């Protein structure tokens, strides 16, 4: 049998065209053939509309075979006879085609994951797995969007499977903010086919920064158990497999970063009363066992709704799911008759076809009912069938019965009618679900974040009552309204755990009977609200326990933040620099402070604290903390040379008081080349002789630049030099003789112009005139006895006036008696003086002393350069100048200065701390040098501690605001060495200063409400007067008063006084006496007995109380 050709839609052709004649084909067996395959005239083909397609499980195999056994018969139609037959076996090989797109197989859904707040780069977050039914598929995982570039997907092979590991792409503090959830859109594509790419549907992976409760794989789980089981019987699925409940933990990881399922989650099984189930138990492996044998016929309920709580051991976080267990009936009971014998009676004398009544018509007086007239032909009577016309309601009928009249009318010529009183007692069925109040005040509640376990949250009470007990708005409950209750069926409450909860039940517990909701633990700091889903359910006790109804509702519990956290600066090591001469409003740096509180308590306002007596150079954006200049800054000013100390206060907007913290740092001012060099004199002059030697020093000019570094380096140039007699050293400013002046025949002045230029960009310069006078004499200028020029002298700033800085001498070249030398200080304008600023000279003959004229101050100037001139005597005196530098030595002669004192608070610090906080709570950080707390007469300093280095003040005890609201501390700051101040006492001790710190104790709600009495009693009349209302005689109420944090309770006993508001009622509307004989004389004196009548008052039995019933 040869394969000749393929047709469109043809699988195989098993014969030649000539052989088609006189042959019949039939498939007698089809092995591994899930498709409809037919054979016509030797062509094997699919049924119309069918496709060969692998079932998913078959894709594990590389190839799939279809085995056909075909029966071929040779048939002679002319003689209608089979002449030959052949049995053939055909093996069709099905090759896979890459036509399926990948499908994600991750469980559970939705895809949830967590990441820590400070992960390392490449930390495992979630592992994606997808399957492609095709055999030649190659799956690649893609992060389509989301995650702010903080995540990536690594495609790896794990256990021969291609998986996509979602890992972190960044690391470091601040990258991931606790409580934020990222939604990563992912896909999987098959890159094994080209050019087309089979791509999966998009999926979302939700990654929460922080911790997440376990996630169950199903909700609900459905399980089955047959009756008459034995204890230990394992519950099964619909397919008959043992059910296994699993929850995915998020905090438990194995060494490779994957989820650790084994032993990570423990399970608890609760019944409908939120108690441990007495019928079933769950093991650590999630398998559920029966604890006792169950009988289907003994139970009114055959479906058990259980709550499975899964708690992750490492984090103690928990979630829940539902488990519904169906009890399966087994045919284990025989049918039975209700009675062993059935009997009935009728009179044997009743005539056949006897007409008892003529045709009758019935009507009723209550539209809840109707009467249909029925002709009973068998008994030849007209019957009025009373039927219900519209819905009856037990709850809305005050005494639970209907009274109405039925009127019957015949069809006589003169119609006659009669009536009867009908009383129908209504039995109750449980058709009213519990009701919640739905006002906003009944849905939205709030608690404080610092409430602890056992704290009162609220009371939720669903009711079956159609008319509730309500009270006046005054909390004393002495004015009672609407005291009657229609239905006292027991209503209980429980939490309904589902996906709408922010956290499964949160840290809350509810009392099933009273609906009292309390906290079971403290509230996590990241949670701002909870949505609690609550189910109110009755017990069906009104109606035999069946059915049991429930109604679901919810409440929103807002977690109110308490302002118990001071703002904090994550770092106060700021060292910004701003260039001088910038426009006002130039940004300097962004200051960042954080506050762990929420809402307005966590909103931070920034401000600059300006110490008293100081000018404000900076302002700050109060909202974002951007510091900017409020003045143009000059680096060359006295303040600019030191830098600027800035104290920023971060203060929250909390209530009842604002909390704050301080951060002090220095702002350096960058240099711009904005100052030209300045000469130390307005002009220079010098006299030399004709015989002055070449290269000898004539004079020296000096220019200084207030700028810094390269901007302050000065070079000197001669820009006017008549005759080119002189030259200048560019670095030192020394002017020397470059060409002999001996050829000058008379006294001549040679004006030079010297330029001093700095090395800034662009360079700045200044010019000065230097006048050189060439004299005709032969005398020389005086000479200094030592090389005093350029010397440096250090003087302590604490030296007293008159202190001798240096002694100098000079020698004149003039012979006696004119050989004396005069000394002077050269002023900037070129004139001379004996006293200049802080200095003066005292001279005698050829010696001089440089002395202090005023006390020096290191903070004002660090150094001084003085020009000293020695001049001889004569008609044309000559002089020689030198320059010396006086360095001011800084001494410990100033007291410490506190930074950041608030001048609006009389120059003190203000800190705060909430009451009832544990010890070592931070209060405020003061800034000076070395710190200690100064003893006071009330020993307040013992209640606090201070870090001697950082100045951080902390509490040393717990405070109670109701005892004292504010404290004042005196902080003493000392520098680190003995004082250099004159007359300092005691000697050899450091300088010190003190500052006052005001500490405000923040209020907390730490006192419960006060109820004057533990028991209130009152008697009231029933209201309104209505005989149809069923009432209790005594009401025992428990009243809870809450201030949102603390609760107090008292009892209220109300006694209801009955009032005579019901008239008597006869049992029958009509009494007939027909046995009185008119001639008979009644006996005396008591008379003849005719009839006894009863009047019915009311008969009430209500929870053990019996009212009056007969009179």
UniProtKB/TrEMBL annotation:
<keyword id="KW-1133">Transmembrane helix</keyword>
<keyword id="KW-0472">Membrane</keyword>
<feature type="domain" description="Cadherin">
    <location>
        <begin position="787"/>
        <end position="898"/>
    </location>
</feature>
<keyword id="KW-0106">Calcium</keyword>
<feature type="domain" description="Cadherin">
    <location>
        <begin position="217"/>
        <end position="337"/>
    </location>
</feature>
<dbReference type="InterPro" id="IPR002126">
    <property type="entry name" value="Cadherin-like_dom"/>
</dbReference>
<keyword id="KW-0677">Repeat</keyword>
<feature type="domain" description="Cadherin">
    <location>
        <begin position="570"/>
        <end position="679"/>
    </location>
</feature>
<dbReference type="InterPro" id="IPR015919">
    <property type="entry name" value="Cadherin-like_sf"/>
</dbReference>
<feature type="domain" description="Cadherin">
    <location>
        <begin position="1035"/>
        <end position="1066"/>
    </location>
</feature>
<protein>
    <recommendedName>
        <fullName>Cadherin domain-containing protein</fullName>
    </recommendedName>
</protein>
<keyword id="KW-0812">Transmembrane</keyword>
<feature type="domain" description="Cadherin">
    <location>
        <begin position="929"/>
        <end position="1011"/>
    </location>
</feature>
<dbReference type="InterPro" id="IPR050174">
    <property type="entry name" value="Protocadherin/Cadherin-CA"/>
</dbReference>
<keyword id="KW-0325">Glycoprotein</keyword>
<dbReference type="Pfam" id="PF00028">
    <property type="entry name" value="Cadherin"/>
</dbReference>
<feature type="domain" description="Cadherin">
    <location>
        <begin position="680"/>
        <end position="784"/>
    </location>
</feature>
<feature type="domain" description="Cadherin">
    <location>
        <begin position="365"/>
        <end position="436"/>
    </location>
</feature>
<feature type="domain" description="Cadherin">
    <location>
        <begin position="107"/>
        <end position="216"/>
    </location>
</feature>
<dbReference type="InterPro" id="IPR020894">
    <property type="entry name" value="Cadherin_CS"/>
</dbReference>
<feature type="domain" description="Cadherin">
    <location>
        <begin position="439"/>
        <end position="569"/>
    </location>
</feature>
